[in-house]
Amino acid sequence: MLVKALKGWWYEKSGAFVPKAAQKLSSFNLDWFLRDSLRRLPWRILRTSENKIRSLAASLVARTLKAATDMSTRALDKAVRNGPEKSRRRLEKGKGRTLWGVTPILTLPLKARADRLLGFKSHSLVFVTYYITRNFDFNLRVLVNGVARYAPGLSPSLDKLILAWAISRYDVFHYFYDRGLMAPATRFGINPMELDLLRAAGKRVYGYAYGADVRRRKATLALGKWNFCSDCPEPPKFCICDDESGSQIMQGMCEKLTAANALGDMLTYVPKARSMHYWPIDLDKIAVAPSKPGSGPLRIAHAPNHGHFKGTHYLEEAIDRLKQAGHAIEYIKVQGVPNTEVIRLFGEADLVADQFIGGAYGYTALEAMACGKPVLTYVRSSDLVEAVGECPLINVTPDTLEATLRWCLENRGKLATIGAQGRAYVERWHSVDAVAGRLGKMYQDTADFPPVTARRVEESRARIEVARETIAQAQEWHHPYLVQNGDPSPPVAGLAP
Question: How many domains does the chain have?
Fold first, then answer.
């Protein structure tokens, strides 16, 4: 119908100029022309529109990016310019604010709580979360991922806006060494520009290590026979590894920080680091689960994120040999489960196996002790342990693992008292209150707070230390494998002990 209508219109308009014979002769061609034109017309329009739309979109994107860049730059400049005065006013009134971010470490909210015990308003902030926990004050995962996916050009502007917001709102910043609020300038590390801006804004900035963010291969291998690189299947997939560039980046960061902190084996990688234990345990959420001495097989729990960093196969080989020798052992291993499931597993065990090659105890060991369980782990030096004389960890390496497990089998009645001391040890030295006390000491040594804030921190520390003395320790818990007895691993020629 449309073709016929157009033909009629064509004849009517052209009739005065085209002879009727010519019209009749060309009627077939006209049909073809009209049909072909109608078939092609939408695509021609679409192609024309697409080019125009693309041109318009490109122009719009360019203007949007420029506007976003200008706006975020102005906001950040204003925040930095006003930052010193805002922080001064808050801190002089004893109303300081602290921010913990952005690596989704399980203890991040607990560290913020520790700061609150010192009188600060404190929050945790992350950009990603994992299965272990999502319990953070600010979780910007959806916002950051959405911008990165649908408008990646806006990511730098978003970083600036988030930093501007944080500078206006907070006075003390706590970061792990892998990144801050802005994207790293290299493979890892807090962006140097961010550190410069924070210091220009009058902020105190502190760094902390969690392991993979600082660990370098050559430095690790030099620690001794057993270390976290001993069985690594794929360097540099899991850690920094590169000693030269990693060392330079770390040195640059530490020079810009108010103070650099590390603990355990991580002290090796952070220049001029303060040795401070900053893994707090939420004792309100971990109940003591007493073992039942002598009932059934010895239940050993193991919860490695990466078995090659824990020495898992050494444990399993030792257990297999003991089983073949006739010993009753029940071995339970879990991976990739929420933290609540790990705690439940520990509560049902007689003994918890942490790691045997790294050389320093970690959060798993603390959680297990909080459950009232004895813990097998390897600690290279007594200097790496808080209050080593009270520490009940069973120090073991692959070289001594089978003999130590045999002792545990033969002394099951002793395990309960070792576990009880573990709970007391965590309550005294690794609770949220205990970490708050150590943070307070760090602030007193480095922050140069105004008198009102400094006095509040000092008073909080004093209350924490008094409360610690009321926590009783277990009796007759000592055993032959104490950390203070020395490194159980035999030295290797040519390697540092």
Answer: 2
